[in-house]
Write a structure and sequence with these properties.
Blueprint: E1 4-12, E2 16-21, E3 24-29, E4 43-53, E5 56-62, H1 65-75, H2 82-89, H3 94-102, H4 106-109, H5 117-127, H6 154-168, H7 172-183, H8 189-202
Parallel strand pairs: 3-5
Antiparallel strand pairs: 1-2, 1-4, 2-3, 4-5
Protein name: Holliday junction branch migration complex subunit RuvA
Family: Belongs to the RuvA family.
Pfam families: HHH_5, RuvA_C, RuvA_N
C-alpha cells in the first residue's frame, strides 16, 4: 500500500498530475487536478489509493486522507467505479454528498455522471449512517478558492475547465447549459470547475 507520494509537481493534466520523486514520475489520477495549479514545480504531498484490477493498475491522488477514505467507501458500492467516485468528489463538497445520502436524496445523486436511479439507491443503501466522520468536512489547504486572482486568459482557463469536466463524464448538452454563466466569471481553471459543478448539481 502506497500511503502518499511526496515530491515535485511536474505536470497537470485534465485527469491526473505527475509528481517527481527522486527521478521517478508518479501519475496520480485526481478528482480535480487543477486544485494543484499553484503548486506546479513545488514540493507537495498527495495521499494515494492504489487501484489494482486485471485490466487496470492506477494510483489515485487526494489532498487529504479523509477525501481518500470517502473515495474508498464509494468504491465499495456496487455500480460505482473509480471514474464515478472521482466525479462525485470533484465537486469539492463531500459534505453535500453525505447529506444527500443521509436524507435519501436520489435526485441530487443522479446528477453525477454515471449515477442512475439504481446506483443512487445502492449508494444510499450501502452508505447511509456510515459517513458520520465526513458530515462536517473542513476546508483543506488545497481547496479551490473562487476568489483567487485571475491570472490566465479566460478562454484558455475556461476551455481547460471544460476538458476536465468532459474527462469526469459530463456531456456537451450539460456543459452548454452552464457555459453562459461561466463566461460571466473571471476565474482560474479550478474556480471554473468548481463553479460548473455547483451549477450542474443544482439543475
Amino acid at each position: 500500500m502506497i500511503d502518499y507520494v511526496k515530491g515535485t509537481l511536474e505536470a497537470i493534466d485534465t485527469q491526473y498530475v505527475v509528481v517527481d520523486h527522486h527521478g521517478l514520475g508518479y501519475q496520480l489520477f485526481c478528482p480535480n487536478p487543477y486544485i494543484y495549479q499553484h503548486d506546479l514545480h513545488k514540493d507537495i504531498q498527495i495521499f494515494t489509493h492504489h487501484y489494482v484490477r486485471e485490466d487496470q493498475i492506477r494510483l489515485f491522488g487526494f489532498p487529504t486522507r479523509k477525501d481518500r477514505a470517502l473515495f474508498e467507501k464509494l468504491l465499495n458500492v456496487s455500480g460505482i467505479g473509480p471514474k464515478g467516485a472521482l466525479a462525485i468528489l470533484a465537486s469539492g463538497q463531500p459534505e453535500h454528498v453525505v447529506a444527500a445520502i443521509e436524507q435519501e436524496d436520489e435526485a441530487l445523486l443522479i446528477r453525477f455522471p454515471g449515477v442512475g436511479k439504481k446506483t443512487a439507491r445502492q449508494i444510499i443503501l450501502d452508505l447511509k449512517g456510515k459517513l458520520v466522520e465526513f458530515s462536517a468536512e473542513g476546508t483543506s489547504s488545497h481547496e479551490p478558492n473562487l476568489l483567487s486572482p485571475y491570472v490566465e486568459e479566460k478562454p484558455d482557463a475556461l476551455e481547460e475547465a471544460f476538458e476536465a469536466l468532459r474527462a469526469l463524464g459530463y456531456v456537451e448538452k450539460e456543459l452548454k447549459k452552464v457555459r453562459p454563466k461561466l463566461e460571466e466569471e473571471q476565474l482560474e481553471i479550478d474556480g471554473y470547475i468548481k463553479k460548473a459543478l455547483q451549477l450542474l448539481l443544482k439543475r
